[in-house]
């Protein structure tokens, strides 16, 4: 009897006319290198500019100035590690031993994502509260605090769900182990819906605040346009949710989950 080689046997038969080349390691795709570089550069530039302004001119730092750059770098590092294991490649080009690492890393990425995203959104909401409410307990004051609480509960829930996706955790990458798991794709879709809803709410809130300012219409439009940069996050969340829904019916997991993580 021939021994099954877990390092060279494809996980799924390729389409007709395509030859499978299952490997243990894959090159990191160019798209993630470019996307990560652009995002890290923009984030680092904004943080440096803001920190310099607050420290040098205003002589005052606030809690939201402690950004999530370290967490963001860790998130990107995990994406690179998952890509080198085979995430982003077609499943028939990834060896069974590597796909286990892809599944494990996909879960770890989702776990790390929750506190990083929560910290970023709390920083934005705290800043919106200071700009439009201050110490006045008006609509903006309570709206910001309600969103903070909802985001805290949502992302804590995401963290716990992804941490305890399977009991025991080893079952995440080895379905043959006795235990229980929740639907991985179902939880990914849930995360996408929470993230998209949260981004839209955080975009709408300051636009409402701008509409109540005592400013000429042209200046209101200019200030609102500044906050509309948040549309980028909403668009990314929408695409992330779209690919999350498709993930449930796509057998080519390693390729499909990569599209989710890219938009994340």
UniProtKB/TrEMBL annotation:
Residues in Rhodopsin domain copies: 50-264
Keyword NAD: no
Subcellular location: Membrane
Region (Disordered) location: 1-20
Transmembrane segments: 32-49, 70-88, 108-128, 140-161, 188-209, 221-245
UniProt membrane topology term: Multi-pass membrane protein
Polar residues bias: start-end ranges: 1-11
Matching InterPro entries: Rhodopsin_dom_fungi (IPR049326), SAT4-like (IPR052337)
Homology family: Belongs to the SAT4 family.
Protein name: Rhodopsin domain-containing protein
Organism: Zopfia rhizophila CBS 207.26
């Amino acid at each position: 009897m021939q021994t099954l080689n877990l390092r060279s046997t494809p996980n799924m038969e390729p389409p007709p006319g395509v030859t499978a080349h299952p490997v243990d390691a894959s090159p990191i795709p160019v798209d993630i290198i470019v996307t990560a570089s652009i995002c890290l550069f923009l984030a680092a530039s904004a943080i440096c500019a803001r920190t310099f302004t607050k420290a040098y001119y205003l002589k005052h730092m606030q809690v939201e100035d402690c950004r999530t750059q370290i967490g963001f770098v860790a998130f990107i590092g995990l994406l690179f590690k998952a890509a080198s294991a085979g995430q982003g490649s077609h499943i028939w080009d990834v060896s069974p031993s590597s796909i286990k690492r892809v599944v494990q890393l996909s879960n770890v990425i989702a776990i790390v994502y929750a506190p990083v995203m929560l910290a970023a959104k709390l920083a934005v909401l705290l800043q919106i509260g200071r700009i439009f409410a201050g110490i006045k307990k008006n609509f903006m004051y309570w709206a910001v605090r309600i969103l903070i609480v909802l985001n805290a509960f949502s992302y804590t829930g995401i963290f716990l769900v992804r941490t305890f996706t399977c009991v025991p955790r080893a079952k995440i990458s080895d379905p043959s182990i006795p235990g229980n798991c929740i639907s991985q794709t179902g939880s990914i879709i849930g995360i996408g819906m929470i993230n998209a809803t949260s981004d839209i709410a955080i975009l709408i809130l300051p636009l409402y605040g701008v509409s109540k300012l005592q400013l000429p219409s042209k200046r209101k439009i200019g200030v609102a346009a500044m906050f509309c940069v948040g549309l980028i996050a909403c668009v990314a969340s929408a695409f992330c949710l779209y690919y999350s829904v498709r993930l449930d019916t796509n057998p080519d997991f390693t390729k499909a989950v990569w599209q989710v993580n890219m938009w994340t």
